[in-house]
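[job 0417] fold request received: S-(hydroxymethyl)glutathione dehydrogenase
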Amino acid sequence: MKVKAAVAWGPGQPLSIETVDLEGPKKGEVLVRIVASGVCHTDAYTLSGVDPEGIFPVILGHEGAGIVEEVGEGVTSLKKGDHVIPLYTPECRTCKFCLSGKTNLCQRIRETQGKGLMPDGTTRFSKDGKPIFHYMGTSTFAEYTVVAEISLAKIDEKAPLDKVCLLGCGVTTGIGAVLNTAKVEEGANIAVFGMGGIGLSVIQGAKMAKAGKIIAIDINNSKEEMARKFGATDFVNPKEIEGTIVDHIVKLTDGGADYSFECVGNTTLMRQALECCHKGWGESIIIGVAAAGQEICTRPFQLVTGRVWKGSAFGGVKGRTELPGYVNQYMEGKINLDDLVTFTMPIEEINKAFDYMHEGKSIRSVVTF
Ligand code: NAD
Ligand code: DAO
Ligand code: ZN
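[job 0417] inference complete; emitting structure tokens
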């Protein structure tokens, strides 16, 4: 079939709205009509050309929501008409990783997904007979996409797709990092570096966990209002304090944060986030994705004296099992998505969404089809 898509022909180039060819779903695959997709920092990272897994031409997008149009051979868990959120972290429920009970990083289709291919090693998208690569197994910047059955979470049909698409990445990542990875307990003091969609969702998760002090940190003062709206008790701009941010957080928390979260992708901040944690037990969770080749460092004595460094991908959430519950919590008013959507625009205007992100004007832009 012919479908409209925003194609990234090469690194650093604006996306181009094209009519491309899309083959139907093969065994274990599903054709999804994408209704809406958030634009995330990670799409921009890959588009910039610095992502080591970045491959072009490609149809980006990994924060979408849509409706099943057709299922391929052997698909049993979904049918035409089901509402779904594509998952860049699949959940096969049979691989060593899924069965471990220790991680959400299903590896069933990892190898092909990382190469921009469907599990059989080919692409469904093409233009003039030349393949166009998939992105993160989702490619949600297309009005139709083909996704593996194990990469789709079936959700409540009453949920507005132009809002719950944010649960396909940013919001789930932030809330999940608090509830699943850190397991923040009531009254714990939290420091959060970076108030983009991820950091604000960490703040939201910390409020859900009934954390004590929730300290938002950003170099952009315009982020304070939103941070407080989501539950921050304090806002710190590191450029406007005397002394170091580490000393500042340690003072504010009477010895250090019980948990800190790095939501920027900056290795200097990762070190600060670890070192502002409380001696003996403080845990720092890295969520931000640093540029290729970057390394983190600290004095090992920081770990010897009880601080813990951890990372979190998609908030440790197993998508097919847990994401429907996140959608329900949104429907019950327990998760705020609406305030994170700064702009909604037709796919034709997707390059504006990247501009707003780079200019710091948006938390999330959502493109619709
Ligand atoms: P964003 O660009 O919207 O937000 C980043 C925020 O950090 C901005 O508010 C900016 O002002 C602030 N910031 C920049 N430099 C700073 C500094 N030196 N000190 C304090 N604040 C600073 O990004 P986002 O969409 O929220 O994503 C954040 C990071 O999370 C990215 O690296 C993204 O790739 C990553 N990410 C990780 C996962 C995961 O599963 N681990 C999932 C999605 C996104
Ligand atoms: O299983 O090796 C693997 C890769 C899992 C991908 C996790 C990606 C999380 C960070 C990227 C941000 C995505 C939007
Ligand atoms: Zn698996």
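[job 0417] notes: The first strand starts at residue 2 and ends at 7. DSSP finds twelve helices and 17 strands in the chain.
[job 0417] exit 0
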